[in-house]
Structure formats: structure tokens, C-alpha cells
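Review box. Two proteins, two foldings.
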Amino acid sequence: MWYPCGLKLDDIIGAGMTGYAGRLDAVVKWTHPNDVRFIERERKVYERLGSYHGILRYFGPVENGILLEFAHHGSIRQYRMENAEATPLTTKLRWIQQVTSTICFLHSKGILHADISCNNIFLDLDLNAKVADFAGSVIDREPYLCFYEASYSHPNIKGVCVQSEIFALGSTFYEILTGFKPYPNLSIDEIEKSYSLDEFPPLDGLDICQSIISKCWERSYSGVESLLRDIETEVEASKTKN
């Protein structure tokens, strides 16, 4: 059976002689007509990616916008601010693995996100992490239209590339585990100065992923695949501790 973009069998609520009816739990993301290039870039990325468990479901275009899956728990940043003490370590580690696996998938499709952060990773009803917001992403070497937050980018890494993505993932993991962006009390200039000297927030208080975050920030990974392998090893090790 054929389904429109983004729909699946579970969405069907009725059928008749001439067609089917499906229910969507969706939101519309739109922009001003003068900024339509951002929506066009995002639409192009979603249509390249197709259906994948680690991204918000894409249902198709609307006027000056796109129709996307509704994230019941908002972004990880929103959720962590409201549930800092209630989030189990196993859940945080699952998010880290899900996000890294999804970024690995993006790269395999010729896409660099260009704005990885806990503000652009969303949580569905079951608290699974879904990467979103591709309005500034690089696809087929087209120039990026957005850029990482200051605490997610290293000033010595120029532009958007695999290394910039991995550095941003390190900061993402840090925020997932601590509930705060790296250097939350510093100005953008102060963050850039510290990073340019390879001075990063201390990791001593973290229960997991210390070495992984450090390697992301120190640009020790050549690709996301090797980073994902380290995370999978961390996940398996955590199971033996519990």
C-alpha cells in the first residue's frame, strides 16, 4: 500500500471507496516569504533523508513552510531545564547514542547539520531523541545558512565540516549530562578565547563519557563513525555496572 510522505499504517483511521483518512500529530514550521530559502533548504534535506527513526517525521510542504512531527516533550534543552534532577543517566546515554547515530546517518547522505545543539534535538512521546532544524544545513556542498552556537563551535575550525560537527557533538553531550551549555556564564568573546587556547570546561564531575567529550573537543576523531563506536562501547559498559 502506498502512503503519502511521512505517513505510515498506524496513522490510518479510516478508509472508503475512494481513499483513506489518516491522523497526524504534527506542527507547521513556516517563515516569511523573504526568508523562504531556509524552508527550501530544510525541505530539500528532509526529502533527501526520507524516513529515519532519529529525525522528526516529515509530512510534506505547505505554503512557505513544512509539516513536521510534533515533539511532545520539546527540545532536550527545554526538557533538561524542567527535569534536571529527574532524568536517569541511562536516558541521557540513550540520547547521546541516538543523536550520534543520526548525525552519522546525515553524513552518509551528504548532509552536515551546521547547528547541532540541545536546542535542535527534540524528544518524542517516549523520550526518544530526534534531530531537527535543517534550515541552515549543508547539502551537496551548498553553503551553510546557519552556524553553531558559540559554545558549540571552535574558532580554529573554519566553516562547517566533519570536525566542526564532532566538536558540536561534544558540547551536546556535555549539555545533556550537566544540563548546561559549556561556559554558560561567559560571553561569546570569552568562550572563543578559551577555546582558541584549547581550554575547555572540566569534566571531572561527569559519571560517563569524560574521555569521549574530551576527544570531541580536542579534535581526536576523524569521523563520526569512530565516535559512535566509542559511545556504543560506553553503553555496553554501563549495562554491566547496573
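Next protein.
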Amino acid sequence: MVVLHYTAMQSAEAALTRLCDPVCEVSAHYLICPKGRIWRMVPEQMRAWHAGAGAWGDVTDVNSRSIGIELANTGDQPFAAPQMAALEALLGAIMARWTIAPHRIIGHSDMAPARKFDPGARFDWRRLARQGLSVWPDPQGAPKADWDAFLRDAARFGYVLPVVSGDHDAGPEGLLLDAFRQRFRPWAAGQGAPISPADCAAMHDLATRFPIDQSGPSA
């Protein structure tokens, strides 16, 4: 699979320096700057240290089963058009090389909802989905707001309920819901609103059309 990140740093050059510094113990396969320049830092067939603790479906060592792409962005600004165009070209090539399905393109916050927020609510997942580079819900109807059904569907799609320490105000269910909203309902993210029929309908559609067990052993 492929995991998308933002750097949360003020410049691509600063991020490049950090990602190439062994002392920092963090790396990624690619870094894309706002102007669309791509740096390849780790060969795709090698393991990079970009994901950290977390899981997607039954994959608990995400670093060993994924390609990491860092987007130079502070996290609170739109992603530049040249950067998105470069990402789309790179993603298409990676997916073809490794036979990666669109539902295996995820965000860092998807696999680590208790720790990470990237690529964040400003990232245009729907744009990727329109090009077959990711997925987007197309819910039919609006079932009632049901936590049990939402969590069952979340697990079918790939989300894993996070383990939460006492430092978090939100419980694991709330963190998972917010990670889901950041990606698929960004206008509702970060508001602490209770689960809604719209959340359940979108998650059910994703779980029905893109269940995690159809992925097989791809990257």
C-alpha cells in the first residue's frame, strides 16, 4: 500500500534535510515540494521509517508493507496544484508497478488515528478518487446513527480501533471517527459532533465496495 503524509515543516528543504538525517530516525520513499519537484530518498523495494506505530487491516508493521510519500505542507494550507499533479503522476506509476488497488492508498491518520492527522482535512482525496488513485464514498440512503454498525464497517474497510492513553480527551471511537471525517467528510472534522447517519452511510458504502480482505499481498 501507499501512505500519504504532510511534513508539518516550513519548507521542503528543511523536510529533506530531516528525512535524510540518520539521527532523526525517520525517512520516506518520496518527498514532493509545492512546485512539483520530487525527491526519491529510499528505493521502493526497501523499507522506510515513515509510518510508525499503527495498523491498517491486519497489517501491523506498515513500514514493511508500504511506500511512504511526504508532501511538503505545514498542515494548515492548501496543497499546491503542481504538487498534486506530481503526486498523481507518481501514484499512478507506483500503483502500476506494484499492482496496488485504489483502496490501498491511505493517509497516515488512517493507520494511526491516535497519533497523526496527516495529510489532513485540506488534502483533496476526492480529486484522487476521480482519477482512480484512491476511493470515495457514494452512500445510498441514510441509515440511523449506530456506533456498533459504524465500527463494524470501519473494521471491514481497514480501520483499527486505536489504543489510547490517558493523555487523550477523546476515546478510541472518537479518534477513529475524526480520522474518518478528516478524509471523507472534512467539513465535519474536528468539531466533536456525535456520530451521524451521514457518517454511518459513508462508512457502510466504503466497507461494502472496498473491504480490506480483497487486497491480497500487494505492497
